[in-house]
Amino acid sequence: MDPSANTINEALGVAHEVIKPRYHVVEGILSGIYRDVPLDGSYDTVSFGYDPEMKQADESDSVKITEYWGKVPKRFLKPSKDKDDFEYSKKDELVEAVVTICNDEHILRVEQNLFIMEDRPFISYQHDLVPNKFWGRGVSEKAYNAQKALDAEMRARIDSLALTTTPMMAADATRLPRGVKFEVRPGKTVLTNGNPRDAIMPLDMGTTDPSTFDQVSSLQAMIQMGTGTSDGVAGDRATASGMSMQQSAAIKRQKRTLMNFQNTFLVPLIQKSMWRKIQFDVDRYPVNDYKFIPYSTMGIMAKELEMTQMVQMLQSIPKDSPAFDVILLAMMQNSSIHNRDQIVQALQQGSQPDGGQQELENIGNELQIQQLQANIQKTLAEAEEEKAKAIKWQAEAAVAVPNEIQVEEQIIKLQKDALDLDKLKADIANQQSETQRNVPEMEHLKSETILNLAKAREAGSKAAVSTRVQ
Fold first, then answer.
1. Do 251 and 273 contact (CB within 8 A), yes or no?
2. Is 433 helix (H, G, I), strand (E, B) or coil?
3. Which residues contact 405 (CB under 8 A, 6 or more apart)?
4. Using an 8 Å Cβ cutoff, are 336 and 303 in contact?
5. Of these four, 29, 120, 269, 468, which has the most CB atoms within 10 Å of its CB?
6. pLDDT band at residue 87, thresholds of 50, 70 and 90?
């Protein structure tokens, strides 16, 4: 990586170094992909690794390939036909290119970047972003200092245990017999010149400091916190609320890591892959401006935390509340039991009303709608009536007072209209009475008609029987 840049796009270029078999490069030279260059290198070197069994004494079949993607002067891109060199021109324009170098000495291939976006096919991912640092901070770096302290603490504790737990004896060398090998073991007889109590005595180095064990636990908690692998709760947080707090903090850190992963690695990887598909498979992937939005499922720790919260909510909500069924359905949808779909379907069917109740509700809704429409029509009719009265009153107020002759003519006309109306009512009443008198006659005619039809059918059946007999 370019040491002066913080991202791949800002760098002058990036290089990818790999070790390839010799035949791979030879085939590329024969097929015209690579230039014909000597493949000699320092093959007499012997590499020794940490493990002697991994010694590689022969490197004659390996070739170091360095593939550089970045900006180079445009004048270097056109090779000369006669010379094993490149033409020079007055142009110093920098263009995106790919350069393949063999054994850090010879150039195998130089081509301009032909990708449609002229991008470099590399993605950098930092597990933990650090300002003005390309490589970021990895998981091992977060735990490095705490792990070193933990190792030192454990080594000191083990050394102390070796001194404090192993029995040791102090002896007076002048009171031991000559040539005796003093050692302590079960059943051993120790010879002394004089009283053994004055010649030998147990040597106690004390006890190992118990606080070192607490320090080891604290360092282990620091490592788990730094690396995001915390799997236990100790100390004052060994309660339900303490575990919930620690679990929430761990989920928050994991969510941040996941967002960092998808923003710096997953989305750029999909975007670059899509550009390649568009360029080399246009029929299946049409050219368009695509925007990818990653969507991930909930992790198991987040599921457990959410389930705990929903259980607590269920305990505080009465069972006859509509929210109780909603939360219960959400719990079943969030669970991972094998028959989850059946339980969810049963809960959904239980929350839906049956057919009869649904039909009654529909009828009630229709009646309410009809009642509202009738009320609206009644209100509109009353408004029209009031409007007509107002217009009539305005007209009467605008017209002058009529004379007595006109009043009498209007009274006579109204009386005549009333007599006509009474006559019309009487005619309607007569017609209704005649209709009611004709009803029994019509019923009698109807019964006679039915009786005649029955007699005709009976006669026809008898005639048919006589015909068959004949």
1. no
2. helix
3. none
4. yes
5. 120
6. low
